[in-house]
Amino acid sequence: MSENPEKVRTLDDLRAWSRAGKSFAVVGSPVAHSLSPKMHNAAFSLAKIANPELVSCRYFKFEIEPDDLATALALFYDKGFVGLNLTLPHKVIALPFLKKISPLATIIGATNTLYRDDDLGGFCGDNTDGNGFRLAAESELGRRLAASPVFLLGAGGAARAIAVTALACNCESLVIRNRSRDKAAALATELRAHFPSAKISCCAAQPERDCDDIAPAENAIVVNATSLGLKAGDKSPLPPKLLKSGMVVYDATYGAHAPALVAAARARKIPATDGRTMLAWQGALAFEIWTKTAAQDVFPVMLDAISR
Asked: pTM of the prediction?
């Protein structure tokens, strides 16, 4: 069997799986673009020096259609896979098929990290996305979520994970800005049920007006959890005139060039970074769940693997 970690494997490949070593994988549809194998295999190469039990570990990528996910998860377990990462659209779809879900993943309503539990006879789910963002904000921007106002662009899955983590860390306030105010309001209502004492508000993006009444607080952590601004030629998801000294900017997207929001912030000498650090931190946290290797020990090699 080929050990090529960049090969996109299918349900048929999983049915025929016969690898003897410990196997891990990212599962999505599509999945060819995933950088997870680069990160995790680099981490295994480092960690096995201190822990010989990790010598046989390899990380692969599988493209599984949503309708086949339940079948695939049972097969991954039967074939001896130790851990899985889930990417779109499986983070939510997988929940009914798991034996146990962490409290954080339950509130977020999605799981990106599965770990094997032989006592329960299946996979359990956790979510490292939000804490990946938290650690990225601390390490790259020098800002802690506790007592900081958070201005969040977007109301989708990534935004939800970031919002839950910010509130769990006792952020000063949370503003959710989204093109659809109804979607932002629905998320805010749901979050208030879990965090009744938190200061949560929402507003609609109005690019034709660039309203100053929806400007972030002067010392806010501004977070883009939409896909806007990633493609060349995209406008910033927040009018650049609303960016002020004292703020920091985190964009969960990443690509060959700086996202539009990051570029706009840097032009104003405002600390800003893209989503590679979040990706590396959430991967390092998943690696810690699977191997008990401290996330901070493998984070540098994971970040390097996806930054070359």
From this structure: 0.92
